[in-house]
Structure formats: C-alpha cells, structure tokens
Design goal:
Helix content: 55-70%
Number of domains: 2
Largest sheet: none
Strand content: under 5%
Number of helices: 12
Structural class: mainly alpha
Radius of gyration: 20 Å
Low-confidence stretches: none
Oligomer: single chain
Shape: elongated
Number of strands: 0
Length: 267
C-alpha cells in the first residue's frame, strides 16, 4: 500500500516546539481516523462463543466507537478472530483500538492488535480507511520521536511492532530523518537507544535481523542506518548535548554507528 509522505503540517506554526507540534498533528490524525470509519455499522449478529461472550458484551460494542472504554475494546481485541467477531467487526473498532494503543491504554499488547489488523486484511479496506490508518500511524510515530525514550517507549520497539502490519518502513524512516534534522533532542536519543541498548551489534551488521520479525524490515533499517543523514545528525546532537546527562550515550552511539557502517562496507 502507498503511505502518505512525511510533510510539515502548514496548520502548525513553524515556531511551535516539536513535541507540541507532534501532539497537534496526532490529534488531527486521530479525528480523521474516526471520521474515515464513521459509517461502519455495528453487527449485532456477529459470530461469538456463547459461553464466553454474552449478548450484553456485544451490545456494549454498539456505542459510539470513540467513546468505547478501554476494557470493552481490549476484551474484544483479545478475542476477535477466535471467539468474538471477525475482520468485519474489527473494521469498526479499529480506530478506537489504534487510538487506545497509541496512548498506552489498550489492555493487550499493541503487537497483538497490529497482528490482528494484518490478519483482517486492513490494507484492502477502502482507500480512505487505509489512508487514515497510515496517516494516524505516521502521526503516532512523529509524536513518539518528539518525546524522550523511556521504558516501553522506544523507536525500534515501535518499528518492530508496526512492521508486522505495514511491511514498508521507508515512510517512517523518512520521518525519522526529518525529525533528526531539527533541533538536537529526542529523535537522536531514540537512535542512540537502538545503537547502545538493543541487540544490534555494530561489528556484525547482520545482527540487525534481531530487531525485526522479517528480513525486509531489517534490510530497510540497515540501509537507512548506512546513509549519511543519521550519522551527521547524530554527531551534531552529540556535540550539542555534550554537557548533558545524555552525553555518554550519544558518544557511544556515534562510535557504534561508525563501526556499523564500516562493517557494512567491508561486507
């Protein structure tokens, strides 16, 4: 599927801090996501296991999608495709599930949701729906890159999960390069985390495969790391933030990226 190219939102003033700008873009993408699925009807006769899914469970899903509670959506996502509903029912709930997952309010792992969306064939939904999902994911990604990495909130983990449903990481890597070109800060720190705190071994480029479930995503990421832009902006961030608590991690990351690229050149 084609994805929206990373662009600067003209509705956000140029002087807006990156984290605030990303929040505005995420909010707009979320509104558009709900709107794209607004005409999908609830199916009261959806297939279900009558021992573990009650009529009241099904009725609870009939409420306005944007108002569905995390508990109701989480239980449905955990069961859809097995004991409660199928891809047609996930189609209606997808905007709320994606929104909750992005805000860490979904009671099941985000990777479970993305795997189920892939199994439901989300990329074959209407062009408007597919475009809304892609734009939402790009906005979610932009918001993540604009905030500091922390436990359960790192770029390479997010990419690993997303690759299972998207299959093409280039738009996300382009967005990362765009973010790195801005003021030194979180985008560079996310890159440093990959280089210093993941299973990537700089002297063995093939170890990039440990970061992803599929070879194509690993190759795309390795190719991106081997371009000049990440190295240049990582170096710039290391110099700009040399007197901060992130200095050592960034310095190590610069060294490891250099070694990774050299090892790739040697083959």
């Amino acid at each position: 599927m084609s994805m929206a190219a990373p662009t600067v939102d003209p509705s956000v003033p140029a002087a807006t801090p990156p984290e605030a700008a990303a929040a505005v873009q995420f909010s707009a993408a979320t509104t558009a996501l709900y709107a794209a699925f607004g005409d999908v009807a609830h199916r009261p006769d959806m297939v279900r296991c009558r021992h573990c899914v009650t009529p009241s469970d099904v009725s609870a899903l009939a409420a306005d999608v944007s108002s569905l509670s995390p508990e109701v959506v989480s239980r449905f996502v955990a069961k859809v495709g097995t004991t409660w509903g199928d891809g047609r029912d996930l189609l209606r709930i997808a905007p709320r599930a994606l929104h909750l997952a992005a805000d860490h309010q979904l009671g099941v792992n985000r990777s479970v949701l993305l795997d189920k969306l892939a199994a439901a064939g989300w990329s074959k939904w209407t062009p408007g729906q597919v475009d809304a999902v892609c734009r939402f994911l790009l906005a979610e990604w932009g918001r993540l890159l604009a905030s500091n990495p922390r436990s359960g909130h790192s770029a390479h983990h997010w990419l690993r999960q997303t690759a299972a449903a998207i299959g093409d990481l280039d738009p996300f890597l382009d967005r990362w390069a765009q973010a790195l070109a801005g003021s030194p800060g979180p985008p560079a720190l996310h890159l440093a985390v990959v280089l210093v705190q993941s299973d990537l071994r700089p002297d063995f480029p093939a170890s990039v495969s440990a970061l992803f479930h599929d070879a194509r995503s690993a190759d795309q990421f390795a190719t991106w790391l081997d371009t000049d832009s990440p190295a240049q902006h990582l170096n710039r961030a290391a110099q700009a933030l040399g007197d901060t608590s992130d200095a050592r991690r960034l310095s190590l990351a610069v060294d490891r990226l250099s070694r990774f690229r050299a090892a790739r050149t040697r083959g």
